[in-house]
Amino acid sequence: MIVYLHGFCSSPQSSKARRLKSHMEARGLGRLFRCEQLPPSPGAAIRLAERQIAAARTPVTVVGSSLGGYYATHLAEKHRLKAVLVNPAVVAHISLAGFVGPQTNLYTGETFDFRPEYIDELRALEVPRISRPRDFLLLVESGDEVLDYRQAVAKYAGARQVVLEGGDHSFTRWDDHLDTILEFAGLLK
């Protein structure tokens, strides 16, 4: 099963979530895709993802984009799962500190308050060093204008890494790597 974790101010309606879901449906794997709207509270987001993981009847791979990659790292380490990280946030408690206050979801238009205590929740989720690099697949583009891809390359040293020149934070070559994700998750033979 794939549990997809979207990024900050994003949703299950994001392009990456919809395209991965559609790709899995086309391959007869649609029943193995989960993506829920994550709450603004990092602690609540992790609890929601953990409920999805606990309910799974097949092995879970977490796929996380941006902030979702930060969450996926925590979940993979805590529950010994495989994780695919797409232009992931590496130090989310630092990179999101400037976003405390009112925010608007890019897809739903819903407004929410990103509270100061959420920075502490992010700090509590930090994984200083991954313990099982073989269980991580990193997908980054060097043109990411939001996060420095080099931080992710260093953090996930030893993991399988796809580092592409150019692109941007949206990971412009997403469609080219959907089968790679499914193969890594053990869903394609």
Describe the structure.
With 189 residues, the protein is an alpha/beta fold. The chain has one domain (2-132, 174-184): Rossmann fold (3-Layer(aba) Sandwich). It is 35% helix and 19% strand. The chain contains seven helices and eight strands. The protein has helices at 15-26, 42-55, 67-79, 92-95, 116-125, 149-155, 178-184, and strands spanning 2-5, 33-34, 61-65, 82-86, 101-104, 111-114, 136-141, 160-164. The strands form two sheets. The protein has a six-stranded parallel β-sheet with strand order 2-1-3-4-7-8, with helices on both faces. A two-stranded antiparallel sheet has the order 5-6. Helix 3 (67-79) links the parallel strand 3 and strand 4 (82-86).
Précis, in short:
This protein has 189 residues and is an alpha/beta fold. Helices cover 35% and strands 19% of the residues.
Biggest sheet character: 6 strands, parallel
CATH overall fold name = Rossmann fold
CATH homologous superfamily? Alpha/Beta hydrolase fold, catalytic domain
Query: How many independent structural domains?
Result: 1
N-to-C series of helices and strands: EHEHEHEHEEHEHEH
Biggest β-sheet: strands ordered side by side in the sheet: 2-1-3-4-7-8
Provide the residue-averaged pLDDT. 96
Low-confidence stretches: none
Counting DSSP E segments of at least 2 residues, the number of strands comes to 8
Radius of gyration: 15 Å
Helix content: 25-40%
Structural class: alpha/beta
What would you call the shape? globular
| Estimated share of beta-strand residues | 15-25%
Amino- and carboxy-terminal Cα gap: 15 Å
CATH class: Alpha Beta
Known CATH architecture: 3-Layer(aba) Sandwich
Number of helices, where a helix is a run of at least 4 consecutive DSSP H or I residues = 7
